[in-house]
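Good morning,

Attaching, inline, the backbone tokens for the sequence recovery test we're adding to the shared suite. The designed sequence is right after.
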């Protein structure tokens, strides 16, 4: 089973991807959090995340964009392909946040067939870029079928509707119905895979691939576990520690004040290793200095 690492804004930027690829691996492709245009420009921080030189595994990395028309798509094709040499681009047709959806972006585009066609048709102008789509369930399931009329690398479907955001259970039957509608492009399953037992039987039986998001943040070894690997508790602890240390090293690179990165380190621990003792995780999440943080983390891995 191929496992793809989902994009999560605020969590899976280059520090996460580089550390994960260096220490753990087992991932087919890493997706960047979405880039978007704000008042005609992209934020410097977002662009720095997709500089080829900043990505240790560019051949396994896919920049994702949030666009709703042909001109925005062309803008990003210029920035990513012509200026930076990325040969893959992922289209975000799934972001459920109401301000995004209301403006016709993310899952909002699934409700506007002419906008969806405009963007998909525009991909043909860039035949040297492989485009993929990551989406949710639209209000009317048949809207998804349009995606199968255009040549894409694949379609990742998270079978929840935008209104659900991350509530309720993913609709595995709706996912299977979309797969039954045969089209040009392979379909990948995404949603609530936190351990190998969570893989829907439909996905296993049909030998499909999966994309993992929060599950991989919680358990960085998830990709390898999904591929059938087993780890002793000691090996698992060592790998998680090495992964954390690599993430920390990438994050602190070129920084004089480790203190400034404390908020980002705490964000990392929001999902990481939820099975660890609550008291110890709380110490990490409440640490007030880098020294306190480092001590709390040491205790987590050595207890
Ligand atoms: C905090 C957060 C940020 C996310 N950012 C993105 C994003 O930038 N692009 C995207 O396509 N999906 C984004 N997602 C959705 C995830 O990629 C994924 O589809 C979702 O979490 C369901 O998969 P999971 O259950 O494996 O986490 C985000 C989700 C969360 C919780």
């Amino acid at each position: 089973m191929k496992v793809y690492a989902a994009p999560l804004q605020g969590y899976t930027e280059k520090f996460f991807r580089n550390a994960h690829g260096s220490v753990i691996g087992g991932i087919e492709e890493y997706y960047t959090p979405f880039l978007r245009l704000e008042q005609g420009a992209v934020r410097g921080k977002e662009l720095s995340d997709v500089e080829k030189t900043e990505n240790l595994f560019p051949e396994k990395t896919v920049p994702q964009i949030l666009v709703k028309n042909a001109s925005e798509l062309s803008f990003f094709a210029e920035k990513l392909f012509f200026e930076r040499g990325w040969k893959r681009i992922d289209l975000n047709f799934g972001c459920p946040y109401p301000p995004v959806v209301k403006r016709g972006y993310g899952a909002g585009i699934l409700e506007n067939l002419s906008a969806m066609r405009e963007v998909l048709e525009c991909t043909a102008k860039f035949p040297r870029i492989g485009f993929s789509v990551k989406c949710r369930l639209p209000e009317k399931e048949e809207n998804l079928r349009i995606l199968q009329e255009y040549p894409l690398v694949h379609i990742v479907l998270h079978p929840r509707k935008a209104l659900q955001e991350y509530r309720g259970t993913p609709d595995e039957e709706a996912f299977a119905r979309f797969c039954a509608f045969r089209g040009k492009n392979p379909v990948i399953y995404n949603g609530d895979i936190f351990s190998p037992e969570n893989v829907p039987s439909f996905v296993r039986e049909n030998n499909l691939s999966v994309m993992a998001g929060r599950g991989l943040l919680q358990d960085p070894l998830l990709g390898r576990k999904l591929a059938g690997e087993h780890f002793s508790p000691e090996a698992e602890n060592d790998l998680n520690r090495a992964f954390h240390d690599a993430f920390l090293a990438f994050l602190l690179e070129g920084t004089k004040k480790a203190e400034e990165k404390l908020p980002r380190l705490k964000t990392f621990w929001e999902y990481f290793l939820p099975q660890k003792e609550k008291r110890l995780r709380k110490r990490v999440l409440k640490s007030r200095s880098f020294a306190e943080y480092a001590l709390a983390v040491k205790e987590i891995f050595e207890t």
